[in-house]
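hey m, so remember when u said the tokens were messed up on ur end? i reran from scratch. heres the input so u can diff it against urs
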Amino acid sequence: MKYLFKKLTAVSLVCSLSMTAVFARTSANITKPKAETLTFTETAFYNNTGCSYWGDGFLWDLFSDLLFVVWAANNLSVEFDDYPYASGKYLTFPILGDETDGTESQYFYKDSDGVTHSVTYIEPSKYKPYRYALSAGAFYFPETQTNSGSLHGYEARLEGYIWKFFGPIFEVTVLSNSGDLTSGGSTSTSFPGSSTELLNPSYNIRLGAQFSLIHSNWFDWSWYIQWTRWYGQLTDYRVDDGMALGSIIRMYPFKPVVLEWRNAFQMMNMSEEDETSIWTSDLEVGFMLNSRWELYFDWKYVYDDLYVVYGYSLNAVSAGFKVHW
């Protein structure tokens, strides 16, 4: 009965929001100007895009409202297990019929008269409206020019959802290099003062928030925005702070595999002439270790002008551990 009530309530909410959106758009269109009052620019827009002015974009407005309702139903109804594959699905959706109540147990006892009675006990739900993951690992960029050395370092990340569809994403990266850049590893003078201390070490801190676009065990997609700041030797060669935009796609196809693809675009001081941009792509495969711990392997691609100038590879390998809660 409790399950049926939750499902009917969710369906009623979606229907109510949809009808409200339709009524609001219909009422607003009653006072819209007729087609003959369109300006030349408006007429050209509708002719070029093939859109009809009927209802002043009523169909598009209706579609966008329904799209928002679907997003809200998906993101507001999601709940998370303790960690991927803890007891089946990592993400559940009560609005779609997923049962999130705890395990039901039945106990029997006899009273003083010898009559047997049964008691049904339902454990509290283990699903929750939040989730977090903390990861730490090391990466390695091989050298591509003689004596350029390798580029290596460490990275850590804390990300999750405070509530259902929004939460923090904090990242720290430490970069170091080996080899002598002054003995032939680089012949370019695009960056002054090349030396073995170029990246020994440099730090990148990125602080921001992520927001869910769609939740699904097969395709969980979010985007994020961060403030990024560089410290150390690297700041002598480029602007040290700016903004980062990115997206994360996660998949939980079958136990114990976890797939993740992250894309980030850092933009430092884009309003100045010495602007710098860095694009990073991480394609990650993880394996749950029969607990909340995950072992992951990562192929990292970074496009950075400094990497090209000083002979570092744009491709790296990475590995580490991640804990979910």
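this time it looks ok to me. The chain is about 20% helix and 40% strand. if urs says something different then somethings off w ur setup not the seq
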